[in-house]
Amino acid sequence: MEGTPGTGGSGLRYRYLVRISETDVGQRVVVRWRRPVVAGPDEVADVLGILESADGGAFGVRDRHGNLIVIPRERAMAARVVPHRA
Question: What rounded mean pLDDT belongs to the chain?
C-alpha cells in the first residue's frame, strides 16, 4: 500500500515528542536522538536505560552495560518512560 511520503504508507503522520523531564529521574526511558558521527552526517540512535539526570541542557541515561550516555536536549528527537521488564 502506498501513501504520502513521510506517513509510513498508512496515511498516518507521526510526531516525535520528548515526554520526559526532571520528574522522571530513576525511571526506565527510551530516547531517540541525533548522534554525531566523526566522518559523515549525524545518525539516529535509540538509548534505553535508566534516566539518571535531566535538566535544561541534557539527559543522562545509564544503559544496560553501565555506560552513562549524555544526550544534549537539542539533539533529542523523542523520549518517553517505558515499563521495567518483568
Answer: 89
Unique residue bearing C-alpha cell 537539542: 74
pLDDT band of residue 11 (cuts 50, 70, 90) is confident
Q: How many residues does the chain have?
A: 86
Q: What is the pTM of this model?
A: 0.81
Domains and CATH numbers, the chain: 22-81 (2.30.30.520)
CA 75 to chain CA centroid, Å, is 9
CA–CA dist 71, 59 (Å, integer): 5
Task: Dig out the grid coordinates for 12 from the structure.
Answer: 498516518
Q: Which string of DSSP letters, residue by residue, matches the chain?
A: ----TTTTTTT------B---GGGTTSEEEEEEEE--SSSS-EEEEEEEEEEEE-SSEEEEEETTS-EEEEEGGGEEEEEE-PPP-
